[in-house]
Amino acid sequence: MTTISSLSSITAKTGIGGLVSGMDIDDLVKSLTATSRQKILLQQQKVQKLEWKQTAYRSVTTALSEFQSSYLDVLSSTNFRSTSFFNTVKATSSSPEVSVASNSSVSAGTITIDSISQLATSQRISNNEPASKALTGTLESDLLTSIADKSISLTLDGKVKTLTFDSTFVDNANDHGLEHAFQAAVDMAFGGTNPEDRIIQVSVVGDQLTLAAEGSQLTVRAVGDDTETLSKLGFTNGQSNKLSLSSPLNLASFALDLNQETETFKFSINSVDFEFDKEESLSTIMNKINASKADVTLSYSSITDSFTMVAKNTGTGENINIQETDGNLMTALGLTPESGATVVYGKNALLTVNGKDIIRSSNDINIDGVNIKLLQTTEAGAKPITISLDEDSSSLIDPIKKFVEDYNTMIDLINSLTKESVFSGFPPL
């Protein structure tokens, strides 16, 4: 009895609770925090309502946007605000020599193209001479001694071979000459022992060694760090018979030497001024010219090793006018009279329609509301091309039905959301 009395006395003085006290702590905490938790719950219910509203608004805006894109956008083929949509006259051609399309102003009828004697073409400037410097090196006098048992690398259109100047090469050179020795070594490397299958042609004239590969790109490189062997042959590491469009101008190997004293090359094409630093690459220069308002396209063919400039506008006349101000870049590309460039002027399209001769500077023409694209000339005495313009209202039925269906679906969605019943006595759980 004394022990129990003492324990009760200690409990009362120290405030011991929990299992000893017999109190429900969880229930006590819930009771104490009930007010705060109720406030949080009300805010969570408000957030839930806002999320539901957000979802509803989003579904409506998506429906409106899709409807607008389909029936009110200028780029849509079913644009109800476009007069061309309601054009019920369809154009068809009796021949693949032309493609046709009618516009809103066309009327039913027939157009007869009696003949197409000439298509419109663009002016072009090109050079038949190679734009790249030949792959030529100057041989040193003690060549056979200095390159004995040494090697170089040859890359032909991505195919890499090693050329080793072994005892066979030296014996060939002593017995038959350097040209024969080089040619035999190259043929052996690329499997072209038959002269008819030969891809790389070797020429040695005096102390000049030339490697030529018609229509192919040939590059010489050092094997490892041995650049000395290349220098004995008169080559530099990475020297090629074709221009590299990614190389800067001051390192490009043009057949017509570029003026190295010029820091900035300036010229104009069709009165559009251009200015390029000598460290810019050919690909960058070509891209800027092609994207400009000069209305020309400059391209390079590794097959013919030549640059070509073509006017974007067709028809006769001077559609490409090049003027060099500083430097000789256009001359180095082979596109000026000084470089021997060939100019082929554009031609106009010549055709006869409904018995009348017509001349146009473009192959895209419009006759009585019909857009006609000339694709090829017709043979003499060939049957005339008939363009039929027929009324066809049936083509509007399906788009209009689809418009009504989509409109009603959109309205039903909006109505279902705006008229949805709200039970204020039942907030979100």
Structural description of this entry:
The structure is a single chain. With 429 residues, this protein is of the alpha+beta class. 30% of the residues lie in helices and 27% in strands. It is built from 9 helices and 21 strands. The protein has helices at residues 2-14, 25-71, 143-147, 167-176, 178-190, 227-233, 282-290, 329-332, 397-418; strands at 89-93, 98-102, 109-118, 122-126, 135-138, 151-156, 159-164, 201-205, 208-212, 218-222, 264-269, 272-277, 296-301, 306-314, 322-326, 342-344, 349-353, 356-360, 364-367, 370-374, 385-391. It has a 5-stranded antiparallel β-sheet with strand order 1-21-3-17-18, with no helix packed on it. Strands 13-14-4-16 form a 4-stranded antiparallel β-sheet. A 3-stranded antiparallel β-sheet has the order 2-20-19, with no helix packed on it. Helix 2 runs antiparallel to helix 9 (397-418) and helix 4 crosses helix 5. The longest helix has 47 residues, at 25-71. The two termini are 55 Å apart. Residues 1-15 have low confidence and may be disordered.
